[in-house]
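Protocol step 4 of 5: obtain the predicted structure for the target chain.
Materials: sequence only (see below). No template structures provided, no constraints applied. The aim of this step is simply to have a reference model before the mutagenesis design in step 5. Sequence pasted as it appears in the construct record:
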Amino acid sequence: MLTKIPKQFYYFLAAIFILNLIQSSFTQLIFDEAYYWYYSQNMAWGYFDHPPMVALLVKISNFFFNGELGVRFMSCVLSAANIIILWLMIDNPKKNDYIKHFFVLVFSMTLLNAYGFFTLPDTPLLFFTSCFLLTYKHFIKNEGVGSAILLGLFMAALMYSKYHAVLVIFFVLLSNLKLTTNKYAWLAVLIALFCYSPHFYWLYENDFVSIKYHLYERPNGAYSFEKYTLGFLVNLVAIFGLTFPFIYKSLFKTKGNNLFNRALIYLTYGVLIFFFISSFNRRVQTQWIIIVCIPLVVIAYNYMLQNKQALAWIYKLGLINTVLIIYLRMGLVYQPLLFNFYYESHGNKEWAAAIKEEVGNIPVVFENSYRNAPMYSFYTGATPTFSLNNFMYRKNQYSINDSEEKVRGKDVAYVSKYLNSPTFTYTRENGGLYKGKYISNFQSYRKLDCTIDDTPVSLNSEEQIELKVYNPYNEDIDLKKLKFAVSYMDDYKKPQETLQITPKPTKVNTAYLKQQDTTHFIFQLPKTKKEKIGYFRVVISENDLLYGLNGKAIHIN
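Step 4 output (C-alpha cells):
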C-alpha cells in the first residue's frame, strides 16, 4: 500500500519530480514533441504514425500550463507515478533499507531518465507497462472480475500508447499459457478489445494507414552489420550505461520460480530476441527496446538485494551514470556545455522567430518537413502551417488531415531545401539552412490518388498499363495544371530516377479530373537505363511543384 512507503522514498521522488518540472520548463521542444503537440491540436482516435495516447497527454498538460511545460507536464506526472508502481512490484522486505540504491538504479537508466520529461509515445508505454505488470501480479494471486477489468483497461491503454505494446501482452501471455483457458483472462481481453474499438474503427475509416506505414512503408536500406545488428547491440549497452554488465547479469541469474518472475523474464528476453531478429532486416531504434527497462528494474533491484557485490557495483556505477546524465540534461538547455554538438532542443525558438520576422503573418509551407512545420507553429503561434511531402520523402499526419485545405488559395511563404533561387534564407548555428520564397494563390493537390491493378509489370516493356486517378477534392482539376511521371526506386524504395509520362485518358475530350470521381488513363513505363530497379510509383506534379507521393510503390519483375 502507498501508506507503507517510507518518507525517504517520497523525498527522493519529490526531488526527481521537481527536477523534471524544471527541465521541462527550460528545455526547448525536440521535433517529435512538436509533432505530437500538433496531434493534440486536433484530437482524434488515431494519427498517421501512432495511436492517440501521446496527444492526450499533451492536451492534458496544455490544460494546466503553457509553453514547453504545457507539452511535458503529464510526462513528469507519469514518470513519478511509474517509479511508485515499480517500487510496489518489489516484495523483498529488505527494500526499505536500500531506497537510495533503488533511485540510483532507476535514475541511471538513460532512456528511462529521458522519458521522465520528454513527451513521446514511449512515455505512456513505459507507465502502462508497469501498470499492466503490477495488475497482472495481483491477477495471478487473486483472479476475479475486478482484476480482469483492470487488466483489460491497462491492455487497451498500452495499445493506445504505441503499437509495440502488443509485444508486452504477447510475451506475458507466452509465459503463462494457462491463461488461454482462464475465463477471467478472456474477460480482460474482451474489455481491452471493447475499449480499443474506437481506434480500430479509426484505422478502418483511414484505410489502415498506420498499419500500412509501419509494416510496409517505413524507410529502410540495404543490410549493414555495423548499422543494423551491431547498432542494436550497442543500444543494449546505451540504455543502461555503465551498469549494463550487472543489469544483464541479474537477468541471467534470475530464475522463473513463480509466474510473475516468469513474466518479467519472458518479456525481457522476448523483446530482445524479437528486435535482434529484426536487426537483420532494418535499423532498430534505441527507444524500441526501452520496454525492457521496466522488468529489468524489478529484476535488477531484487538481485541487488540478494547480492551485496551487485548492490555495491550498481550503486557506484549508477552514481557515475547519474552525474553524466545530469550534465547532459544541463546541456539540453545550455548548448555550450555540449561543446560543438547541437541537439534538437537547441535553437528552435531562434530559427522560428527569424522566419516569422521575415514572412510576417502569412502561412508557411515547409517542403518535406513534418518536423519544422509544427515546431514553427508552436514557437510563433502562427497558423496554419503545412508540410508538403514530395516523392523523396514519406507521408505523415499532414498527408491525411485538412492542413492542405487551410493553405490552398492563400499567399504563402514556401520553405524548401530544393529551391535554387530563394527570396530569403536563414542559417542555423548548427549549419542547417532554410531557403524560402513567396507564392501567390498557392495550389497543391497532394491527395490525388494513383492506383494500378496488382498485375505483373516488367521493366522497359511496351505493354499498356491502366492508371486510375481519384480526385477526392470538391473541385474539378484541370489536367493542364498537372504533370505525371514515373519514379523508379531500388529494392528499398529509394528514388533512383524520375521520368515524365503523358497518360492518355480512356475517354475522349477528358480535360479535367472530376471532383470526387475516378478518371481512367493508359500509359507505358518510360525506358530507363538504371539498374537494380525494384519498384516504381506514379507521381503527380501540380503547378510545377516537385512530384508528390500519389501512388503506392509497385513491384517490378
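Step 4 remarks: The two ends are 63 Å apart (CA to CA). Residues 2-335 form one domain.
Proceed to step 5.
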